[in-house]
Every structure is written in C-alpha cells, then in structure tokens.
Amino acid sequence: MKPISEPMEIESWKQSLEETPTREVPETHEGLVEYLRTHASMYKAHNMLGDSKSAPIRIGEIYDWIIENGVCLTGIDLEKTERQPFYGPAKIKDCYYNSMVCQSFNRELEYWEGWAAGIIPVNHAWNTEENSVIDLTWSKLDYMRDNPEQVAYFGVAIPREFVQERLFKRTRFKPSGVAGPYIWDYAVYQIIKEKKQHIEESEAYFEPQEEEE
C-alpha cells in the first residue's frame, strides 16, 4: 500500500498548494510567504496534529487569512529599538513577552505577531512605530545587529485591547496567562467577522475560557 499512498499524498498536497492563496510581495519576502503557503497546504491535505475536523474554521484557512492580510516589513531600526524603556535585559527567546512589555512602556507602539527571517523563517513578535520595526529580542543577536536591514518580517498588528481581553483566558491556541502567540485567535476573530455565516457556531467553538481554579 505504501507505494500507492505516497503518490496520492503528494498529489493531494500539490492540489492543496494550488488552492492556497498567493500574492505579490517583495523579493526579500518571497521565502516567508512560500513557507506559510507550504504550511497551509499541508494542513489542508492532511489531518495534522492540532487541526480538529470538528472545527468550523480549520488551520489551513487561518494560514490563508494570514497570507492574504499579512504586511511585509524590512529591517530593524536599531536606533529606535535602543531608545525604548525596558526593565532589565530583554531575553532572546521571549519575543512575545518582550514586545508586550515594550508596548506597555510606550503606548505609541503597535504590537505585531507573525514570522521573521534573518536566515530562516520563525514565529516571532515585534513592535512598530511609524512603520519602523522595533525588535527588542533580535536586536540582541550579533548577526541581526550586523545586518539589521536584511531582516524580513511578515505579520499583522494585534490591538492592545484584543490581547488584554484574552491574556488570562485559555483559548484553542494558547493557555491562560502566557504572553503569546495571539495571531491564531486574532485571525479566527477576523475570519468570523468577514464570513458573516455560522457566526454563533464559530464563536462558541473558539470562545476564550476562564481558567479553572
């Protein structure tokens, strides 16, 4: 059966990739968008871990929304980043926490989540001010400091109120009381608003839950 199923799986993946939205982006961001398209197609072609068949909005559809609505940003503004007030040194692997705290000190900043690539794409969070990227996390890395203009970002701004409302609630995509990620919940929230159908079913399925004591 294996020689038969493998071509079928590849064909299913190819079909899913063709159905996944694409868009014109700068050459610096093409790898990031293709990375997301590949993930979207894999979730559509296979019943992957964490993607419940009973969900009214599937993970592949969430990736589609992010691809269609994500914004391309380039380069770290080291000067603005270093001016940001922050207590203690920002830790390298705490991008969600660093960015949320940074925004709490400077309410003029926007909080963003998505993916970034200096070498390879990874989930990431950062801040912006007037379209300049402020990245307390990656600005600590020698490679990023030496090549700040080469860092590519792709993501969405998430309103402060949205994060605050869900910070101490458990959702389908995160436990209670963690700094992030919030992009999956935010994408679902936007998809529900845009689809204007099955709203009650979707809202009930994805409703944030108070943590049980």
What does this structure look like?
It is built from 9 helices and 7 strands. The radius of gyration is 18 Å and the shape is globular. The chain folds into 2 domains: 2-70, no CATH class; 72-161, no CATH class. Helix 1 (2-19) crosses helix 2, helix 2 packs antiparallel against helix 3 (59-69) and helix 8 runs antiparallel to helix 9 (199-206). The chain has a 5-stranded antiparallel β-sheet, with helices on both faces. Helix content is 45%, strand content 16%. The chain has helices at 2-19, 30-45, 59-69, 78-83, 95-105, 142-146, 160-166, 183-195, 199-206; strands spanning 71-74, 110-117, 121-129, 132-134, 152-157, 169-170, 209-210. A hairpin with a 2-residue loop joins strand 3 (121-129) and strand 4. Residues 1-5 have low confidence and may be disordered. The longest helix has 18 residues, at 2-19. It is of the alpha+beta class.
